[in-house]
From TrEMBL, chain A:
The chain crosses the membrane at residues 6-23, 30-49, 69-93. The keyword Cell membrane applies. It comes from Actinomycetospora chibensis. This is Na(+)/H(+) antiporter subunit C. NCBIfam families: PRK07946.1.
Automatic annotation (TrEMBL), chain B:
It holds the Pfam family Proton_antipo_M. This is Na+/H+ antiporter subunit D. The chain crosses the membrane at residues 6-29, 41-66, 86-105, 117-135, 141-158, 170-195, 215-239, 246-267, 279-301, 308-329, 335-356, 377-395, 415-434, 552-575. Keywords: Cell membrane, Membrane, Transmembrane, Transmembrane helix. It is a multi-pass membrane protein. It comes from Actinomycetospora chibensis.
Amino acid sequence: MSSPIVLLALVGVLYTAGVYLLLERSLTRVLLGVLVLGNATNVLVIVAGGPTGAAPLVGRAPEETMSDALVQALVLTAIVITLGVSAFLLALIHRAWTLDREDDLTEDAEDRSVRRRLARGEQEDEEELDTTGCETVGDTDPEDTETGPDPVRAAAGATGEDAP
Amino acid sequence: MNPGSSLLATLIPLPALLPLLGAGLTLVLSRRPMLQRAVSVAVLSVVVVIAALLLVAAVESGPVVVTVGSWPVPLGITLVVDPLSALMLLTSMTVTLAVLVYAIGQGVYDRDEDTPITIFHPTYLVLAAGVANAFLSGDLFNLYVGFEVLLMASYVLLTLGGSRSRVRAGIIYVVVNVVSSLVFLVGIALVYAAVGTLNLAQISTRMEQVPPGTALAIHLVLLTAFGIKAAVFPLSAWLPDSYPTAAAPVTAVFAGLLTKVGVYSIIRTETLLFPDSEVTRTVLLVAAGLTMLVGALGAIAQADIKRILSFTLVSHIGYMIFGIALATPLGVAGAVFYVVHHITVQATLFCVVGLIEGVGGSTSVTRLGGLAKASPLLAVLWFIPAVNLGGIPPLSGFIGKLALVQAGVVDGSALAWTLVVVSVLTSLLTLYAVTKVWVLAFWRPADQIPVSEEPDQDEDEEADEGDEDVPDGRERTTGGLPGAPTPRSGVLTQVRPGTARTIARAEANSGAEVDWPVARLAPADSTPALSGRFLGAAGDTVSSRLPRVMTAATAALVVLGLSLTVAAGPLYAVADQASDDLVARTPYIQAVFAQAVDDRVAR
């Protein structure tokens, strides 16, 4: 019995590629990364089943020479699950595309506000938070939070916050 | 095997099976909303009853095991009900049922019978099935399948309506969870390569022969996978990002259940598969402390109530991990009790936020005020679970924290003492976060709400979309905040009346998005029915404007949380027994292998 070095190498290469793709900003590449990682994992599960052998059908081969049927069943399940998830992810990406005509993941409104807050100092804190809660206008239009703070409102927000 | 236990054994698969069948049925009934609702409620009620029976059986006579399809034990899939899984099942299904009623109430109240949200009920039931399957599974791969079932359903629920913010959050959520599932699958592959089985009981006996280094590697891989799902600190960033965007009932059930399934898996693997692991003990303790602190600090920094609660959710996962990491009967019992408490209280709070959104028109504390005056009932509904979460003495949150602190003190190591300090500090910080909401949103007079500027042009467009029939005079009475400055409505209430907070459309998060098919499918004349009756109903007092069914469901959850306090004695006895069984390991393993003997005898 030889250790399945080729398959293990393949798993390594696929993981490398998959992680690289997953870290991209483009959503399509993220999807590809998910697919590659899924396949890498499937191969790994197959390798975990031990050495290859005859098809696991009773009567075709002596039982000792059969390969492990369980891992194949597991991988089949995993493939189906990955397929379903990929289809859903693809649908989400398509939806994101129809909304924004952009393949990149739009930035979190919260992240944006944190960055702007850092750049501007702490003064406009409360106003920023005010527009970036989850039911805000912030994600209706990415630009509208860029309009800058209204000093009166910011000040009022700050006083309100200081109440406790 | 006596007839009673075999009858029980036939009950075991039902919590997973019934919701799946119900999901199919509700999908068929998608044109009959009333029947659909009746089926969902009936199915989940039956599951709650079954879970209660299973809990009684498991507490009285030890773990109950069934082998699916009567395959002999190491080969077939086993479902195991021990006190831990039965307790988790009962708690989670009760909360699921209450939140379902809440969701139905929201649907009825917003009059969205005409909008096609037929997918909600089937998906919700699939989610319940996945959760039940995960809790009952006695097999690592079946646990994976349970996770995938519930995650798949959660993907759909999170992105209901497909608004911009939800799609964005949904993509992150899906990718993170897919990756965590893949890590879990890697863990399964490693376990199988090392011990040649996936049956949890069999793994636990065979894992002792595995070299410590290999075992540690496998352990850490599994821990990483579950850590992502449970949102333990370095792996928790996805949660506050994605949960707040969903509809209120969806967030409630997610917050209650999904992370807890991860916590449950951690409890199971830590106690059953890898007891006495010094390395992971340290890792888990440090992670628990950081989870508590970072979560609590995050909660303080937020202004949106949903985000505050999401961060406290992360923060309090730390308590459970603390108890698990101690790995003493005392610690695990504390963790088990805390899970039960936290499922209930967190779901309750998110339900209350849904009500706040309805009365106040916002979930941001910078825009809310005077709620206590506007709706005293709502104030009570918020106050009780909030102080419960903060750990004010008579309530169950205090009991859980006390138990964990006690376990930490008994443990006595330096790290455990640090964790005790951190957990007390976190409790205070949580209290600060929820009190901030209380002071700003409930106690602050409405006329002190910061006045907002003119509405953006963007919102004018949205307002034009469906607001023609809402005169300004009515606008002014909206929000349930008498005395609130009118310009306040410039930002929010002009958006809201036109965009009903239905589950399907649920555009509250994004402003109106009219290009979505759901919106187009809504009948053209439906604007009055869909326009926020929450906000628009004239004449009544605000408290009577609280939708009855939603309020009743929330109140039921609050009462459930209180009953955890009243029944803390018996409940803690169950938690103790569960944790004794877990730490001893033998009851679980013996029960599974006894089943194997039974099967052989039967043959």
